[in-house]
Structures are given as C-alpha cells and as structure tokens.
Fold each of these.
Amino acid sequence: MRRILTGAALGALLLPSVASADVVSAQHAQTVALRDGSAVVFFTDTPAGFQVVTTIAIDETSPSLRFTHDLAAGQSAVIELNGTVDTPAVRLVLTREGDQLRVESSNTKSAGL
C-alpha cells in the first residue's frame, strides 16, 4: 500500500500547482500537487467516525508527514505549508460534506515568520 501511495505522490510532482477543489469518496485517495512535493489524502467513514488521513512528502526518499483529523459533518481542517517571504504558501482545506470529502488546494502569498 505504501508503494502505491508513494507512486501516486511522485506522479503528482509532475503536475503544476494550481488552485483546485476535488470531491473524494470513501476509500479513494486524492493526490494533490504541492509547491515542493505532493500530498495524498483519503478518508474512512466507519461507525467509529469519519477519519481523514493526509500524507505529505517531497519525494520517496525524504521523510513524510502524516496528519489525521476526525471530522463531523460540515467541519473543516486546514493544513498550510509556509513558503519563504514573497513565495507562495500552500493551503489544503479538507471539508466533510455528508459522506464525502472536499479537498481544496491553493497557493497564497506568505508573509514569512
């Protein structure tokens, strides 16, 4: 499974980063191109809850970050990857819409730290 997700993530590196929104169904992964890598987002909708899993990596040799969120109907989670001053930050907004997940990505101007 990890090899499949890594392959999907690497495939996304070839795609340009643009603002977009996609709706994901249960047990299907969505790959999102980021400025310096990619994210793979999926969720499971079980009687125990609606759990969203996001894995972000630059490439298959670098360490990855994994985020999990339990979302109620209508709730959102935001993951933002800052850029340096005057370079775009990347924002992922993950919103539960009934039994589906809306994944929105956009580039925003970073104010730096």
Amino acid sequence: MKKILSAVSLSALFVFIIAAVAWAAPYDDIVKKWTREVTYKDKFQAELTIKVAYYASEYIDAVIQKEAEKNLWTKDEVENYQYRLLKSLSLEEYIPFYIEFDNRGPAMHMAPFDEQITLWIGKKKYKPVDYEKRFNFSLTGKRGGFVYFPRYDDKGKPTLEGAKTIRLVINGAISAQTIGKTVEFYWDIDKDSGGSYLASKAAERLEADRLIKRLEKLNEQKKELQKQLDELDKEIQKIEERLKELQN
C-alpha cells in the first residue's frame, strides 16, 4: 500500500511540475508581450535602462492565474485576491503602468516627474493623475514604481474606448544618456485578449466602488447647482417684488 501511495504521490508531483513548467512559458510570453525595455548608452559607457509594463487585461489575468495555480486557491480565495489586486492597482479609476529605471551613470533629476511623462491615447494627451513620488528625487541605481493615468474623462466616458494603440512618452532631458532623444513606448491595446477578471465578482465590487464615488461627486455638484439656483430664485423674487412696487 505504501509503495502504491508513494507511486501515486510521485505521479501527482510529476504532473504538477509539468503543469507548472507549461504555465511558466505562456506567463512569461504574456509578460514579455506587455513589457517594453530599452537601454541607452553615452560615449562614456554610462547606461540607462528603462522598463515599462502596461497592465493590460491579459497581463492581469495571467498574474491572477499564476498566483491561483501557485497557491492552489479556492474560488473564493481567487475572488478575494482579484479584488485586492485590482483595488491596489486602482483599476476602477486609473490606467496603471509600472516603470523601472536602472541608471548606471550620472544622477538623474526628474522632478516634477508628472511633467516628464505623457500618455497619448489616439490624438488625446493625458498627464499622470498620480505617480511614485520617489521619482522626484535624485536617482542612481534602480528605482521602480507605478504611474497612473485617468481611465475616465470628466464626463465619465472611458478614455480607452475605441482606441487601438497607446503611446507613453518620457522627456529625453531626464538623463545625460537620453537628452536630445525621443523616449517612447507603444502598445497595441486592440490585441489585448484578456479580461476574464472583468466578469468576476471582484470586478463588480470595483465597479460598485467607482459608481459610488461618481455618485457622491455628482451629488456634490447637484448641491452646488441647487444652491446657485436657490440664490437666483431669491434674486428673481426680489426683482419681481420691486417691479410690482414701481408699477403701483
């Protein structure tokens, strides 16, 4: 019996290892698909490597699936992880990018960083809503962090709606290696085949969070408009009362 159990255990372990190796390949392919990396050198052999990851739906699906496979999570555990991940990425409000600088040259000075980076969606240009504040400090060696762009415009319309490509542009003046050069990264977002997390309960919770915030904002605007309307009504009433006095 022990030999049989041992054989079964070894077989199960073998299958698990094969499955893990098989999953690693597509995961690495997906990461590569949505990650951009470029290295700049100057004549003094100083180097700057910039790596940017766009959190496409396919990329997020892969991260969730990899963690679920690794931890052997239940359905509820996967849903909870999805919600925490999506919440940490602020996906209900923003478009996140993870940027890493590896500077092996003179110190870089990028403050204020939100003026050094731009996202182009079609012909529309967007500035960061939030970003890793450490990018404002003098930089040598490695430093990474998230940069967030608006997912919705002022009217609540998705900024990515109808877009096929996006372009992230960084000011070349951030370093001696890139000065005078165009630093930009492209993604074909119409090739994003992911998005299964969008049908999850976690995504519904996120959407509810966003709609609640939107509703709060609209109610505040409504109160302000109602206040202005009440003031106009009072002024109109005074004018009408005065006109009656003059006509009598």
Amino acid sequence: MNLSFFTRGFFTVNKSMGLNLVPYLAFNTSSWNPVATPTSLGYPDNQYSNMNFAGGIGVNMPVLDQGLLAGGLSFGYSSYSDKSALSSGRNLTTTVFVLPAFNLGLEWPFTDWMTGRVGYSRAVASVKNNTETTVGTIVTTYTKGTQVTSPDQTITTGLGFHFNRFSIDGTVGEKLFKDGFYLITGKQNELFGMLSASYNFGK
C-alpha cells in the first residue's frame, strides 16, 4: 500500500519585482508485507513500512529580464521500519530528521530552444538507527549521528531543450566536469545524469 500527497502554492508578494513566495508540503507513507508461497514450503517475510514528511518555503523571481532565480529553505522527517515476522529475528528502525535543507537555482535561456541551469543544494541530517536482534536473547544496538549531504551533489548543472510544446530537460553528469569530455580525455562519462521529457497540452 502506498499513499502520497503533495501541495504547492504561488503567492505574489511584489508585482513590480515579480517576486513570488512558494510554500510546499509533501507526505508519503508505504507498507509492504510479503508472504512466501506456498506457505507449506516458505515462511512470512519481514514487514516493511516507510513514512516521509517534508515542508518548506521558497521564493522565485525574474533576474536580468529573461533569467529566473529560485531558492528556498525546507525540512524533512522520514522513518523506516524492517520488522521480522518471526518470533526470532532482527527488527530495524531508522529515523532521519533534516534541518536545514537549502537550495538555490538559476536558469537562463541561451536561445529560444535551449535553457541553461545551475543549482546549489546542501542539507544537514540527524540520523538514528535502532537494531534489535532476538536469537535466544535480545541484543539491542543503537546509533545516533549528524551528517551533511554528499559534496558530490552540492553543485549541479543542467540543460533544457524546447521544441514548441515538447521539452527535454536533463542534469549534466557530475563526472563530466571532473574527468572531461571523451574526445579530450578518452574517459567514458555520461553526458546527462538524469533526463525527463514533457509535453505542454495547454500551451
């Protein structure tokens, strides 16, 4: 079972500057209780559940006539549970609290059909892990720590290609900047880390 909810709003706070306030809320919960079949030969598998909640507020505004600047501050909470369906086994619970999560992005149209983008993202997370193992006796292991998001994904760049109502957007592969283009270095790298395609029916 999976249930997801996401809402976002745009509120203009300064018409002359084109400054918009953008709050958002997101919620997701899922559970999975698989059972091996036939049951005479198998046994119940672990029971899994996951819950995520996030919210934040950001701003966006035009810059230098054609550009767009956007940024925001947000927080998040997630919990994951992996419980044994048997009387003996391992029960794992992990919770993550993220605050603050900061992001900033800028896009600029190079031509009518191509847009360049650059972004910055950083977050601090508090992580708690609790593991309970039952094999004759109960052994509990608890860990807690704070970590910062990976620096490999702090700065990202991307390109967007627009052909009338059809668009292709992608993030440039991170290793491309580290190792260089194949024609120069001879190292094979993915040009795009992620690609998406969209079609605007209302345009």
Amino acid sequence: MKTKFMLLMIALLICAVPMFAQGAGGGAAAPNTWVPVTAGFAMAIASGLCALGMGRAVAGAVEGMARNPGATKVIQTAMILGLVFMESLALYVIVIIFVKVV
C-alpha cells in the first residue's frame, strides 16, 4: 500500500511539472517591493548572531586568560582573529544589501 501511494505521488509530481512552466510571452514583471524589507531582516539577523558569537568568544577568551595568565598573548591574538571572522559576516551582508537594494 505504501509503495503504491509513493508511486502515485511520484506520477502526480511528474505530471504537474508542465503546469508550472512559464510560456514564452510571460507576464510583465511586478516590481519587487519586498527586497528592502528582507534585506533589513537579513541585516538584523546577521548583526544579532554576530553580537551573540562575539560575546561568547570574548567571555571564553577572558575565562581562558584568567585560568592561564601565561597564555594571555596567544589567547588574545586568537580571540581578535576570531572576532574579525565573525564581524566579516555582517560586512558581507551589508555588501550584499548594497549590491541588491541600492
């Protein structure tokens, strides 16, 4: 029974493909007004996640420096490198927003 149902679903999906094809004429493209809104949400999500990641990274680095003061320079260098990589996410999102929206 399950096999017949799956075969029926596959057959329906294969038959439905031509219904979604667009003709050569096509309609006039409507202006996409949602691009700035989604760009704002993308920037908010990227900035929020960057801030959370940076907070956790700094907290871990400070805890590591407190436990092992001799390794402060190495931990600090690794922390700054990690913060740069995390901040690059927000910068990439800003570049993509400027390319797409502006």
